[in-house]
Amino acid sequence: MNGSWAEIDLAKFDANIKCVRAALRRETSLMLVVKANAYGHGLCEIVKQAAASGVTWFVTAYATEARAIREILPHVRILVLGAVHPDDAPELAALNITPVVVSEEHGLALSAVARAAGIKLKVHLKVDTGMGRFGVPWADVARVFERLSRSIALEFEGICTHFASVEIKKPSLGPSQMDRFVEVCGQADHFAGRKLFRHASSSRAFLYHDPWDLDGVRPGILLYGYGAGETLMRVKTEPILQWKTHVMQAKRVSAGTTVGYYSTHVTPLPTTIATIACGYADGYHRALSNKGCVLIGGRRCAIIGRVSMNWITVDCGPDSNVKFGDEVVLIGRQAGEEIWAGELARQARTIAYEILTSIDNTVPRKYS
Ligand SMILES: Cc1ncc(COP(=O)(O)O)c(C=O)c1O
Questions:
Q1: Is 3.40.50.1820 the CATH classification of the domain at 9-224?
Q2: 195 is an active site residue
Q3: Is a pLDDT exceeding 80 seen at residue 54?
Q4: Is 80 close to ligand 1, i.e. is its CB under 6 Å away?
Q5: Selected catalytic residue, list 35, 126, 224, 280
Q6: Is the shortest distance between the CB of 279 and ligand 1 below 6 Å?
Q7: Residue-wise pLDDT tens digits, 169-179
Q8: Which of 186, 190, 182 is nearest to 209 (CA)?
Q9: Whole-angstrom distance, CA of residue 347 vs CA of residue 94
Q10: Which of 95, 210, 303, 334 lies in disulfide reach of 329, CB 3.0 to 4.6 Å?
Q11: For a pocket test of ligand 1, which of 16, 33, 177, 209 has the largest count of ligand atoms closer than 8 A to its C-beta?
Q12: Residues 195, 261, 323, 366: which is the catalytic one?
């Protein structure tokens, strides 16, 4: 009864993985993105289940996440998307963790450390085809790769890019990015003297552009059950995380009752207010003040007043018999009613990714 908790359905996760896997050609790798604590779902349990469901490639943002996976799974492939520190090169090579090379300087620095340590480091080249974040600008790839591929301490195994936008009904940068990527892949293959392992697609590109699957796809959000809202999609996955808590106090109030900091809500009629155990310190967005809903007793109850640090006040209605200890669903399903992260994201003017990754790491995760 302390606070909120998250319930993660590993059987649904397994089903999501199998459904995406089944849509891919057999020779295309499914590279599961598990950064940000597996999008808030808990890294360790998620990678264990994914490996049991047949995933052999994992993708992280940082080397620390990659090390944590390696401790659990000695044989899977792990790619680190962020710019790893060159000093980490020997350890990464020893752990068979593959970093991306994000620039010429980064590649040269990794090469220098690897060479001094007498090791060969497997790497993927990150190409910036328009995202403007990490990567060698596509126009420079031939020159940079020509130079880096001469290093005896780097083994270029793969080449990748990341889409800035993929749309189905309106123009987006995706198709131009893909054209640029295919062109530079040809140049890199030429200097490497062999075909590099190519990967580009995250969830949206996977959903709407089968030909962009290449040798591997890197979806994240889709496997956690989001991002497939539109029609015409290639697969349908289901959310696997529910977030729940309890009612800590229920009270009948008269019309004209002020609720929460700065009294941003005044009850228009007599009603029942429940105070529930969760707040912005747990990762529940304060932007949902006077906007979001929770489920209690199978009914939608509107958040009234400001979301505070540890508590939220909701309107259960005049006829409610809500009481101390009742279960509350913040994200999930209760008696046929549903609230998913996509709904909260629209109300908080953000994206489901942020709703999920905001759930504080102190919130216990329960797996079934
Ligand atoms: C480089 C890269 N690849 C793949 C992904 C996965 O994206 P999504 O969760 O939209 O599938 C991300 C997510 O941020 C990313 O940064």
A1: no
A2: no
A3: yes
A4: no
A5: 35
A6: no
A7: 889 999 999 99
A8: 182
A9: 46
A10: 334
A11: 33
A12: 261
